[in-house]
Model the fold of this input.
Amino acid sequence: MAGKKKEATLQASVTNQEQWEEMLATKGLTVVDVYQQWCGPCRAVVSLLRKIKNELGDDLLHFATAEADSIDVLERYRGKCEPTFLFYGGGELVAVLRGANAPMLQRMVVEELANEKLVLEQGGERKVVKDNALTDEENKEEEELPQHLENEESVIVPASKSYTVAIIKPDAVAHGKANEIIMKIQDAGFEILAHEERTLTEAEARDFYQHKAAEACFEDLVQFMSSGPSHILVLSQVEGSATVVPAWREFIGPADIEEAKREKPESLRAQYGTETLFNAVHGSEDSDQASRELAFFFPNFRTASVIEQDGEEEHVERTLALIRPDVARENREEILDHIHKSGFIIALQKEVMLSEEQVRQFYCQHVEEDYFPALLQTMTSGPVLALALARKGAVSHWKTILGPSDINKAKEESPDCLRAQFAVENKPINQLHGSGSREEAEREISFFFPKQQTLAVIKPDAMEEHREAILEEIRGRGFSVTRLKETVLSREMAEEFYKEHREKPFFNQLVEFMCRGPCMMLVLTKENAVEEWRAMMGPTDPNKARETSPESLRARFAADILHNSVHGSSNEQHAEEKIRFIFGDISTDAELTSDDPISAKEEEKAAEKNTEIIESSTEEISSSREDDPQTGGSIDPEHSN
Done:
């Protein structure tokens, strides 16, 4: 398929030493995604790399994937699951990036390409680097960390609460999904009593899974579980329910991925697993096993019915951090480095331009203060970087790192705090924001990262050739497909859908197009789902999409404004109405695939429920064909609501 070919040619595949040496001889900058065979390359960044390549259009920029298992010089990268990108210029290593951090990756590509051009054009000297994370000393420290934690930390499990052990396995960690899964765990009402990242040794994996020693997959399981970092969590429930073990097992779904996708499509294993061995998460089978597993990972755990007054029990929580425009432009990476070193996980990240109205809404309690005009000017002067930070005691810890809100006081009393370090000369407003309390943190996080659902439709023109590529990209962008239905619209249904446009000249053409084959209707869930899905689709007119958003779905898969592949709700209210209209209150709709024919009964059911499914398509065609010289068919009518 076209999408697959484009991906294949974007990154050269390097699978042996000879190909590696040929790659290093390539003139220009080569960005290499180093991976292990069992987990594959980092798919999450493919769209970004294609976007960078198209925008820069530079013959000196190359991308490649390299399999560490079969290339001798990459031997030390084996067993390290975190996505790793190596930058080579003139056959020498010039930069290293770990993690699928899209903004940082894009920035580094642009900067290192510029540096390489200077070397080639002006004969400058390359700044060759070493991957310090691979030094023996640091490797030793990493290996000793779990033991240190075991010796120093105590895990307190209240006697009134049941608990279970959860593991986010190496496959999910390797694909950068750990933080996303953790947020979903918390959103589902589970309380994280303890959290540790560690890589199991082969002996530990054998010991932990000894009850599976007689199974055929045991050796593969041991190798897999010791191949890279896992996240170990102790879970309870906020309500102190005695049913946490079965609740967690229900939430993660069946161990068999196909069964999970078929019977529990909203489960973690259905969303993040790829096959039975690589099924993303683990859960204790019963309370006895939970006790054994807790003792295995946290030997110093204890239960307590009362927490001492001078020893507050801390749980993983979230807080909002804002990096205001002035320092977001100049010091973002330095501040992010401080955040990581302080033990925070960046659970959510978003760069946004705020309007005056949004700033007034967010800082409503400060509007009457004397400093508000300066704050308003600062917050609207450029993009703000919003972060949801997670760790134990996140709110208080972030406030401590920030220091006093008054810049002069911060400089006098706490010169090492972030607000003092990153104060901007002649600016009375501090450049970093933190939530004041847990309650305030959740409100503020919801302001910048609202949880949303949106309706997505894969139209008939894209179903046969591009459906799988579109679905793959949807999941790769972090959307959860919480509902899915394939249906065929009868002519009567389509005419009813478009009854408001019955007198328009394009009515019959539109109806015939939408009736010619099946549509796939999906409910997508994610923070800012409506906005992100619309950005992913691109402009309604594919010609405009190819000019302004060449990586969008419509730019790549659509033929014209009628056959434009996909649809998305224009706003949250529209999404709610359409989802309710299509899926109703039924939570057990059968998940159909292209191999499952639509029965008459199912079509009749769809006819009763789906009277407005393609409303926006009509608006699209109407917009493109009305004699309006100002629009010329280039304005997305869904944005005009």
About this structure: Confidence is low (pLDDT under 50) at residues 1-8, 135-154, 303-314, 586-641.
